[in-house]
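FAQ

Q: What does a record look like?
A: Structure on top, sequence underneath. For example:
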């Protein structure tokens, strides 16, 4: 009894207090030698762990630095090999045929849309584009494991998530054309999609801004107890921003239901990963923040699915952040403003395109089960290309949004200053209308406020 009380006191109080309490309790309860020796034992055990409030560590008398090459690195989880064979049967998520075919169709539709929009930029029909080549597995595997109501914050190379959630081809095209049907009213550069209906927050160009914002949203979800989580996507390059640190630390300390999904595609524009960091990638940082972390083969869509499913479970059930680092490769140029042949070899790109592509791996998996063949492939290719070309033509024909919409939505109601600016611009445009292609712009009939 006395020793039980003693050890409780020892765990509840800090050292100097324990010391004095120890003596008091031994005087009160000690039946002699036995009690005293137990209390002495507790006392020395307690001495073994430091009491600093900032760590959970033990004492050591060995002068030793912790080196970054202490271990081999976090392993890369996979389900399939390159030929689509499942390596360990119990890791196959056994998704129904219909779902796997939908995954494949989303990945290939994205790939075909990328080809057409990339070419259209080259022809001067849209101003800018970013392809998703080689990263389709990270998008579709992760999106398929989320609840459609989970909130997604993207960086800019995650169009596949929208594809999976059913964002219509027309909406992609309208955004890239910045026409009058664009949900963003033509205010953003191409690929800066956003849709409230599909719970996808509008992309913003400055790197890393989405990370702390996503944590804030996850904290709000926790308070609302809505059983949902937030998925925040970013590139390994963006993880070098200070915002990433702030986000990781806030999410861990505030215990938020968020999945940080890093696409490690080997480059931040022209900077390869070996110049970006010295540690074990991005997943290696997680444990230091107190975040459960995992690394996955991003070109294995089933592995990404399994990891995201498990991450979502942890985030939602335990209100905890999870960090997923999906290893993949950016096969395309960074954007239409980049020529990657200036900083990487054609052979390197060819390897990923021909040997380790997420689309061919999933096709092999489906073919092994008799779910896909050449005839189906040919038919789907033709049909998807036609759908994209038709949608593309529709978007191109549309007018640009009313230019006066530049002034709206900055504030809930237009300020007097903004109203003045809009009026001045109206006067200017009407005075010099011969110099502006005003006929290409829609005219809003509803009053602007
Ligand atoms: C704050 C900020 N700094 C720099 C840039 C310019 N920039 C745009 S994309 C990019 C590289 C990002 O690389 P990564 O996060 O790995 O994404 P990836 O393009 O590889 O998908 C840079 C430096 C920016 N948009 N914002
Ligand atoms: Mg990158």
């Amino acid at each position: 009894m006395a020793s039980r009380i003693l050890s409780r006191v020892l765990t509840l109080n800090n050292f100097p207090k324990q010391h004095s309490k120890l003596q008091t309790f031994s005087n009160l309860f000690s039946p002699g030698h036995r009690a005293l020796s137990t209390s002495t034992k507790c006392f020395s055990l307690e001495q073994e762990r430091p009491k600093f409030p900032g760590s959970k560590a033990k004492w050591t008398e060995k002068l030793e630095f912790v080196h970054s090459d202490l271990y081999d690195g976090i392993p890369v989880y996979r389900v399939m090999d390159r030929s689509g064979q499942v390596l360990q049967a119990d890791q196959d998520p056994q998704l129904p045929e219909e779902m796997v075919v939908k995954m494949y169709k989303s990945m290939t539709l994205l790939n075909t849309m990328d080809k057409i929009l990339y070419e259209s930029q080259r022809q001067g029909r849209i101003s800018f584009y970013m392809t998703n080549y080689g990263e389709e597995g990270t998008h579709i595997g992760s999106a398929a494991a989320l609840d459609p109501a989970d909130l997604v914050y993207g960086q800019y190379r995650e169009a596949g998530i929208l594809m999976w959630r059913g964002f219509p081809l027309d909406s992609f095209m309208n955004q890239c054309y910045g026409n009058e049907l664009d949900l963003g009213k033509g205010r953003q550069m191409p690929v800066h999609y956003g849709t409230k209906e599909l719970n996808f927050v509008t992309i913003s160009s400055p790197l890393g801004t989405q990370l702390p914002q996503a944590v804030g949203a996850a904290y709000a979800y926790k308070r609302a107890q809505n059983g949902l989580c937030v998925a925040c996507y970013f590139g390994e390059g963006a993880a070098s921003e200070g915002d990433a640190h702030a986000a990781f630390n806030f999410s861990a300390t505030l215990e938020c239901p968020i999945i940080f999904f890093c696409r490690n595609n080997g480059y931040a524009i022209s900077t390869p990963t070996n110049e970006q960091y010295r540690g074990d990638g991005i997943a290696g940082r997680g444990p230091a923040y107190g975040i459960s972390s995992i690394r996955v083969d991003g070109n294995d869509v089933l592995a990404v699915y399994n990891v995201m499913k498990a991450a979502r479970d942890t985030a939602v059930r335990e209100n905890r952040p999870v960090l997923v680092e999906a290893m993949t490769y950016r096969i395309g140029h960074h954007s239409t403003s980049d020529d990657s042949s200036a900083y990487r070899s054609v052979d390197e790109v060819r390897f990923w395109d021909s040997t380790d592509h997420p689309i061919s791996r999933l096709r092999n998996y489906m073919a092994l089960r008799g779910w896909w063949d050449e005839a189906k492939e040919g038919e789907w290719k033709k049909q998807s290309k036609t759908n994209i070309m038709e949608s593309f033509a529709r978007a191109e024909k549309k007018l640009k949004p009313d230019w006066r919409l530049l002034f709206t939505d900055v504030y809930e109601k237009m300020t007097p200053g903004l109203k003045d600016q809009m009026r001045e611009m109206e006067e200017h445009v009407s005075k010099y209308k011969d110099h502006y292609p005003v006929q290409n712009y829609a005219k809003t009939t509803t009053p602007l406020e």
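Q: Is there anything notable about this one?
A: The two ends are 76 Å apart (CA to CA).
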